[in-house]
């Protein structure tokens, strides 16, 4: 289920807001929060791929599977920052 | 056989009317997909319908969890969640809608709790096998071909030519295990020996090579059949046409028909 609480605070001012903005734009959810679940807010594998394409264009290195495993902007950012982290 | 409590729920609520619920509508996606297969339906369904989509284990919100391996046990689990969810609107007519493999699962669920209507789209009746099952599982290569073909048919491939390197391959990599699990799940399907007692509507795409066999022998109530424009994926490509057909079909239902 989408976690709408807590969505405003993003202590890491870098990747998290960028990822949340991309998710929000592709899912047409303008207030997509740092801890919102990608699939809980209507994501699909196709939309995940489009988000990853956008994020790659912004210079990030990630795979579609990172979105599947991490699901929230904050967790995706953590995976990008420590790519060897499992699950 | 029940799901572990930490597993993602099988029922994913999509929308709920602010007032009374006219129809409690539950959709079962086709093989290889998850709840997002019905993403475009939210804006299309009438506002007074409650809309829920089934997301099978191991995909989307449940990514990484084990896949279901027995269709009857899966139907038990879905029926159990559905019974609990029905408590919120117990009097609203319950209509199950299944696309392709989802139709067979919806059919099994309809055998497990009282439903007011079953709609099966692009789904041959239980006696007719769509796949050659049991011999040997399809190769990864064959499944990759199927997935790539489906993505091309949906217009996705074209988008990726411009969007990014390798992403189409990644999508295929993610989809193949799901499709394989669903094909294996289908091999466990066994038709219950008794017919349903709810109305059944079978929808077929005019361009789908699937033979549009009638469902009349699967229920003691009337079974109707309609043909819509499109192929096997008309459910995703033309939701408005499907919803219009559903409304036509449901209109004459007297209250409380079970």
From TrEMBL, chain A:
<feature type="domain" description="Carrier">
    <location>
        <begin position="10"/>
        <end position="84"/>
    </location>
</feature>
<dbReference type="InterPro" id="IPR036736">
    <property type="entry name" value="ACP-like_sf"/>
</dbReference>
<dbReference type="Pfam" id="PF00550">
    <property type="entry name" value="PP-binding"/>
</dbReference>
<protein>
    <recommendedName>
        <fullName>Carrier domain-containing protein</fullName>
    </recommendedName>
</protein>
<dbReference type="InterPro" id="IPR009081">
    <property type="entry name" value="PP-bd_ACP"/>
</dbReference>
From TrEMBL, chain B:
<dbReference type="InterPro" id="IPR029058">
    <property type="entry name" value="AB_hydrolase_fold"/>
</dbReference>
<protein>
    <submittedName>
        <fullName>Alpha/beta fold hydrolase</fullName>
    </submittedName>
</protein>
<feature type="domain" description="Thioesterase TesA-like">
    <location>
        <begin position="26"/>
        <end position="250"/>
    </location>
</feature>
<dbReference type="InterPro" id="IPR012223">
    <property type="entry name" value="TEII"/>
</dbReference>
<dbReference type="InterPro" id="IPR001031">
    <property type="entry name" value="Thioesterase"/>
</dbReference>
<dbReference type="Pfam" id="PF00975">
    <property type="entry name" value="Thioesterase"/>
</dbReference>
<comment type="similarity">
    <text>Belongs to the thioesterase family.</text>
</comment>
<dbReference type="InterPro" id="IPR020802">
    <property type="entry name" value="TesA-like"/>
</dbReference>
<dbReference type="GO" id="GO:0016787">
    <property type="term" value="F:hydrolase activity"/>
</dbReference>
<keyword id="KW-0378">Hydrolase</keyword>
